[in-house]
Amino acid sequence: MNTDSAAESVEDLAGLRVVAFESRMEQETARLIGRYGGRPLLAPAMREVPLDGNPAAEQFARRLLASEFDLVVFLTGVGLEALFALLDRSFDHQALIAALRRVITVARGPKPAAALRKLGLTATINIPEPNTWREVLHAIDQHQPVAGKQVAVQEYGVANIDLVAGLAARGAQVMQVPVYRWALPEDRAPLQKAIATMIAGQAEVALFTSATQVTHLIQVAEAQADGAALRRALSHMAIGSIGPVCSLALRSNQIEVDFEPPHPKLGHLVREAAARAAGVLACKRLTPVVEVASPALTEPSRAPRTATDHPALFDHPMMRACRREPTPYTPIWLMRQAGRYMPEYRRVRDKLSFLDMCRRPEVASEVTVTAVRRLGVDAAIIFADILLPLLPLGVGLRYEQGDGPQIQRPVRAARDLASWQPFDVSALEFVATAIRMTRHELAGAVPLIGFAGAPFTLASYLIEGGASRQYLATKTMMYTQPELWESLMSRLAQITAAYLKMQVAAGADLVQLFDSWVGSLGPDDYRRYVLPYTAAAIAPLRGQVPVIHFGTVTGNLLELMREAGGDVVGLDWRVNLDEAWARLGYQVAVQGNLDPVTLFAEISEIRARAGAILTQAGGRPGHIFNLGHGILPQTPVAHVQALVEMVHEMSQR
User: Fold this and answer.
1) Which of 341, 507, 566, 641 is spaced 20 to 30 Å from 220 by Cα?
2) CA angle 641-642-648, nearest 5°?
3) Residue 62 clears pLDDT 50, i.e. is over it
4) Residue 386 and residue 456 in contact, taking contact as beta carbons nearer than 8 Å
5) Is 336 noted as a catalytic residue in this protein?
């Protein structure tokens, strides 16, 4: 960073208290603020945590040396340097340089371009400022189409999910190459002190040099119930951002940006603060700040009004909870609420096969609506199955009595994937018809949830041929046939997105993505083999309807699942809701998470355990009550009804 471009010392900050969140250049930041007459308050908001072993980086090097990539994107200069420092321990430096000369290289801004020059390389594509993911995609589009191309994206700290999803949506096979991950500082006392100082009105300027600083600041403030107070305090301060990406993070958290420097460098940011802070503060003192009742109301990424035929649903507690807005009580619905535990369902199931029930819209609608009316829940979920999108592919999907779904023609080699029929979403029109019929029957009483299986869970069924305990075939393909895995997951991401969009067009008010089997993976495998494709499946729904992202046995994956996308993260019963929510950050809603077996206990025990979950949620906007998985077949219906009633009663505001 060029920190010496500021001109001679001028006390333009004139004693103003300036809060900055820089960590790597903490001392230099303090010096610059003091140089312009400000009083620095430094609160490092993040630390770099190297990835243990980093098998993804090593795999990138092997594939690069084998000339498997067509295009490599470098997002940061520091990240590029750190990547080579890691790879140079195990691979020949000059061979890596020679391999990069054979591919198209993309530099997001001047810093990775400069890092490439240090290696003796010139970037094929240079992304000019502002260099957000949109400009990166636009520049790549202008150079050449990426459909069918192998693309690697170097990351640093957090994944750029929008960029990865955009490349995947264009048909690229994307490999993410992490270098570090960002974590909160081990000593959070300076950050907590800064929050208290700003809330007390004892600071006038705040400077942000990365989007992660914004995320961590809000996360710490929300964890100590100071989020609203901090936003109010920041609305009265002069806010400086290093550049467009950081500004986007600030605005998505309802923090208005007052100035950016002409160049995204620390010295330019402090100089801009010295030149403009006094004027910004004078203007804010003359103009009252209009506060927003809930941060979710103005977030552009949040779902707009949906359900055009029933606009009142926009203010239904279920929809408000998805947007993290206050509700009169905690909304509740239950996975498999239309299932074998209900006698009404069993009577229909005795006459029809499971697949026939799905394919007959009038039957699917009937069992969906019956569950809502019998239980009094706050949402309906259309009766269907996560594997239905596999039907048009010709893989021989069967539902065997007692054995569950079976795939007669599993995917084990490239020829199996090549034999698929083209996916035609209209072949699933019976689901859309069931949604339309159900919306009519519900008459605006409660929202209707559409759903789909996530790419990893669908892939596991396709590879294993049915249910599995060890996922041996699935993981073996991941590790030994990465090209086939990428092709399979890319197609499944596109299929899932198309299926969900069809349901939204038919009238689904929100959707849930079920990743039932992804808990079989560790974080590194999830980051490399799953996250880009789940993100690509969710991305097309962003801004249309709320998305609930649910998985089981995913306590070790929650932060990565949030990274993949979704307005609500579903929690299973194996985690404490309060701890999980704090880890996720309070800018996302949560759903869950009562153990389904609890419903076999006495009513008093059910009440105690449901009350404990509500206590963990703390009345914070954004909690949807649910089980940690689906209702079990022998569950007493009366106990399910009692749960719904007691959640409504105990959570009354």
Assistant:
1) 566
2) 95
3) yes
4) no
5) yes
First-to-last alpha carbon distance for the chain, in angstroms, is 51
542, 301 Cβ separation under 8 angstroms: yes
CA distance 167 to 133: 10
Q: Which of 47, 276, 349, 583 is catalytic?
A: 349
User: Strands, E, within 393-484: which ranges?
Assistant: 397-400, 404-407, 448-453
> Of the residues 39, 47, 232, 340, which is catalytic?
340
Amino acid at 404: G
* CB within 8 Å of 577: residues ≥ 6 apart: 571, 590, 592, 593, 613, 616, 617, 623
DSSP letter string, 289-329:
PPPPS-GGGG-TTS-----TT-GGGGGSHHHHHHTT---SS
Closest CA to 463 of 412, 500, 518: 412
Cα dihedral across residues 505, 335, 300, 182: positive or negative: negative
Is residue 493 within 8 Å of residue 485, measured between CB atoms?
no
| CB-CB contact of 541 with 497 (8 Å) | yes
Active-site position among 63, 108, 336, 359: 336
Confidence band for 248, pLDDT divided at 50, 70 and 90: confident
Identify whether 529 is a catalytic site residue. Answer: no
- Statement: residue 129 has pLDDT above 80: no
Q: What angle do CA 568, 583, 553 make, to 5 degrees?
A: 70
With bands split at pLDDT 50, 70 and 90, how would you rate the model's confidence at 289?
very low
Reduced to 3 states, what is the DSSP secondary structure of residue 227? helix
Task: Specify the 3-state DSSP secondary structure of 264.
Answer: coil
Residue 471: exposure state from Cβ atoms within 10 A (0-12, 13-18, ≥19) = middle
Q: Is 461 a catalytic residue?
A: yes
pLDDT of 573 over the 60 cut: yes
* 271 in active site: no
* Beta-carbon-side half-sphere exposure of residue 616 (alpha carbons within 13 Å): 23
Which residues contact residue 511 at a Cβ distance below 8 angstroms, ignoring those fewer than 6 apart?
449, 450, 451, 452, 500, 503, 504, 541, 545, 546, 547, 548
Give the model's pLDDT for residue 133.
Answer: 80
Tokens of 508: 């689904």
> Which segment, 110-119, 122-131, 463-472, is predicted with the most confidence on average?
110-119
Catalytic entry in 180, 461, 526, 586: 461
349 tagged catalytic: yes
- H or E element at residue 215: helix 211-223
Residue indicated by tokens 């009038």: 362
Residue 386 has pLDDT above 90, yes or no: yes
Mean pLDDT, residues 162-186: 82
Q: Which residues of 309-346 are buried (b: 16+ CB within 10 A; e: fewer)?
A: ebeebbebbbbbbbbbbebebbbbbbbbbbbebbeebe
pLDDT of residue 130: 67
Domains of the chain: 17-46+186-291 (3.40.50.10090), 49-183 (3.40.50.10090), 313-390+422-452+495-650 (3.20.20.210)
Active-site entry in 162, 226, 378, 385:
385
Is the four-CA dihedral 85, 88, 94, 98 of positive or negative sign? Answer: negative
| 156 secondary structure, DSSP code | B
